[in-house]
Amino acid sequence: TVGKTASLLGMRAFLVGGIVRDLLLGQKQKDLDFVVEGDALLLVKELGKNLPTLKLISHERFKTASIILKNGQKVDFATSRVEFYQYPAALPEVEASTIKEDLYRRDFTINSMALEITFGHIGELYDPFGGFADLQEGIIRVLHNLSFIEDPTRILRALRFLGRFNFKLEDNTESLLLDAVSSGLLELTSPGRILQEIKLFFAEKDIFKILKLLNHYGVYTEVFPKAHYEEEFLSRYFTFSFEFSRYLKEIKIPWLFGVIGIYAKNLTEISKFRKKYPLTREEEETLIKVTKGIGEALKLLPSPRDIKGHEIYETLKNLPPEGFWALYLLLDRYRAKVRFRQYLEELRFIKPKITGEDLKALGLKPGPLFREILNKIKALKIDGVLKEQK
Ligand code: CTP
Q: What does the sequence similarity comment in the record state about its family (predicted)?
């Protein structure tokens, strides 16, 4: 439909970027990106006439538009364009141009191919920079020497693609990347953009490999300030046991689970990460709770004395699931691990039959005392002192 509508409007239309690369690799891709030589806004308006149920979003300034499909998938349309970066790491200015110029402003050759979908040319690969050959040889190569300067997040993208596809950096690209790193370009980049890349790292299958690459290319502590790189621990953290994986289903913010692993060995330094990046309130609170929760658990659980169930419960109840695995790995004594497991499997699910309603029926009013009594009842139940009938 896109190709047809574009053809009728006299525009050339192309699929571009990651989708072309992944189609050629025979891999699945989620995003559909189109570039048209012509006004993308006009094309999307025209598409909207034929498909009135679709949701359209237009950005006049960038001459881009998106369609949200019924299944929630987003399809992006851009007017082929040249972007002028006013200074390194700035958002680009936009001006209309040809598909070749559009491709030339992209990051790597493997991401700079287009598949034409206009009538008469459907399925023709447009590959002016040798992306297909690089894809076959497994090479990440920039299109020009200023690529990392224009957009330093490409340093991180390069490492992500290296890790994902098991590719190599082309020699010149590698020295440009190292130059970009040593001239501190990442420091000039907005933390928000780096955070986006961090989230993408943790969505990759082999995150451990990417962390190794970050370390190898000297950007590990740039991305994760004050984190120690401990390969052995990281490898254990990111290949957690299958047996434990059921607890990971409780995790609400998967990428934070990754960040916690990176800081697990020196958790207090995670505050540097918190301060550097624009986190949501929920993300920030989770990190604070995990730091506190693990700190307190490490004081209690390894203790040689006999610890009561309710003490374990009280100490661990505020630890979010994002911190479970890190705590488990940090507890190196068998006995402490068993205590933690007891919390995970039993203690946290124990609920007394007596509830607030029962206390109200006895004439008690909700308040601090009320809460204290309920907590006490729960503690007794956890310790097995309070035995209620089934
Ligand atoms: N792009 C770029 N420079 C960036 C980000 C993106 O040149 N800093 C270009 C690349 O051509 C890329 C396309 O925009 O292919 C789409 O970007 P994005 O969706 O972020 O990446 P994908 O290549 O689709 O990768 P992924 O599979 O990780 O989504």
A: Belongs to the tRNA nucleotidyltransferase/poly(A) polymerase family.
Q: pLDDT per residue over 26-72, tens digit each?
A: 998 778 899 998 888 888 888 888 776 678 888 888 888 988 887 77
Any ligand 1 atom below 6 A from CB of 106: yes
Distance 17 CA to ligand 1 centre (A): 6
Residue range 235-278, pLDDT digits in tens: 999 987 777 888 888 999 999 999 999 999 999 999 999 999 99
Average pLDDT for the chain: 90
HEC sequence for the chain: CHHHHHHHCCCEEEEECHHHHHHHHCCCCCCEEEEEECCHHHHHHHHHHHCCCCEEEEECCCCEEEEECCCCCEEEEEECEEEECCCCCCCCEEEECCHHHHHHCCCEHHHCCEEECCCCCCCCEECCCCHHHHHHHCEECECCCCHHHHCCHHHHHHHHHHHHHCCEECHHHHHHHHHHHHCCHHHHCCHHHHHHHHHHHCCCCCHHHHHHHHHHCCCHHHHCCCCCCCHHHHHHHCCCCHHHHHHHCCCCCHHHHHHHHHHHHHHHHHHHHHHHCCCCHHHHHHHHHHHHHHHHHHHHCCCCCCCCHHHHHHHHCCCCHHHHHHHHHHCCCHHHHHHHHHHHHCHHHCCCCCCHHHHHHCCCCCCHHHHHHHHHHHHHHHCCCCCCCC
Is the pTM value of this prediction over 0.95? no
Q: Identify the band that residue 363 occupies on the pLDDT scale cut at 50, 70 and 90.
A: confident
Pocket test for ligand 1, best of 27, 100, 111 (most atoms within 8 A of CB): 111
